[in-house]
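Please check these two lines:
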Amino acid sequence: MSAATVVLTTQNFQQEAGKGSTPIVVDFWASWCGPCRAIAPVLEELAGKYAGKVRIGKVNVDEHQELAIQYGVLNIPTLVFLKGGQEVDRVVGAAPKSQLETKFEQLLK
């Protein structure tokens, strides 16, 4: 995991993703999920490309079900785009890199 990626838990979620000035993309995933594993390298690449501009947070839904429930995550992977602690966008499923890059760019506007 890169320095721009943080593991989010029930304990640190509010502090890490709640109200920071840097937008964060929260990846709701599980180790047994094939599509989650498929997009992980893409997210790592984007974390590097957008380092200092956008952070990536990873929530393991098996370990932190209450966060998945709080954000209404019914399918994984789900990427929730937060700006100032508020959800501004969401992608459900393994989206192609080009689509994710577009979403990251929109998050910075």
Q: What stands out?
A: The first strand starts at residue 5 and ends at 7. The radius of gyration is 12 Å.
